[in-house]
């Protein structure tokens, strides 16, 4: 394990880069293929007898820099970068599950993870149960002789429900399940699932890791053995590998991750406190508020509450629409973790893959609004929300 702190690793990565020309920034290896000195070298690379690159779908130095950085931040042995966050989610499940296996998934999940598990996996003979993972008894009751994997995210999008990682890690170990946590919302700077015995950590790097709203990408972190399996099966043959250019942009974005996360948390806390006292808001979901059930996990499990807030407006669905249409600085867009503050309506947008019943069961009401608090001056963000409240 390398000796640096997280904020140093965000900038340098575990393996300090030495460029032959002295370039400060590692170059972008924008190449599809790598030439061999002779036939013997090509054969040795394919046989795995000589380290080195062959073809970018199988590996690339720019991609490798990203994988090493994020693996170091997650304190995992290795990582695989993917074309999107969903590429990471699908690679983590498809690499280890086969027909006849059973997956225990959280009943509240990112909308497309839910759609993959509910609609796609059963087509390949994989049995999936959706469980309330705040409930240890429900988890126990979901176990089957063929249970192979547990998949969850925390805090849960968009209600920010926090799951007990100690409980989940112990449950998975006791029952020989491969445990997977989607750590997109907090990033390794605020939460390290590894400390709770989690086997695989997935990320949508589209969000905070890149942090500039100009890339879609993902990562899976795990043991050397698990990552080798992912790379040599699903990534190689299904092919959701990242573009080196995107990896280069994320390497650049990562250099400020520690500074950005501190600011996202600080501003989100102020916005959440503002919303909580507003007469037109009935409920605020943010683990940084003592009124939120997730607050007790701050400290031990999570170093910060992150930058995403959900809240319920007093009033009808139409009032909700009027409110989001009236914001001027807060941009009506899905995604999160960008410098811009983004506002969206989960029921009609990110969580539309759910039926209404499934959505309500996951705690996502018609009137819920999600805010990804950006890096603007927080007083400007609050002033924009204040004027939008006057629109209804
Ligand atoms: C965005 C997101 C994903 C999917 O990532 P993409 O990069 O959009 O494919 C998965 N999980 C969570 C929690 C997300 O926010």
Automatic annotation (TrEMBL):
It holds the Pfam family Cys_Met_Meta_PP. CDD domains: CGS_like. Its EC number is 4.4.1.11. This is L-methionine gamma-lyase. Belongs to the trans-sulfuration enzymes family. L-methionine gamma-lyase subfamily. NCBIfam families: met_gam_lyase (TIGR01328). Signal peptide: none annotated. It catalyses: L-methionine + H2O = methanethiol + 2-oxobutanoate + NH4(+). GO terms for molecular function: methionine gamma-lyase activity. Its cofactor is pyridoxal 5'-phosphate. InterPro entries: Cys/Met-Metab_PyrdxlP-dep_enz, Cys_met_metab_PP, L-Met_gamma_lys, PyrdxlP-dep_Trfase, PyrdxlP-dep_Trfase_major, PyrdxlP-dep_Trfase_small. Keywords: Lyase, Pyridoxal phosphate.
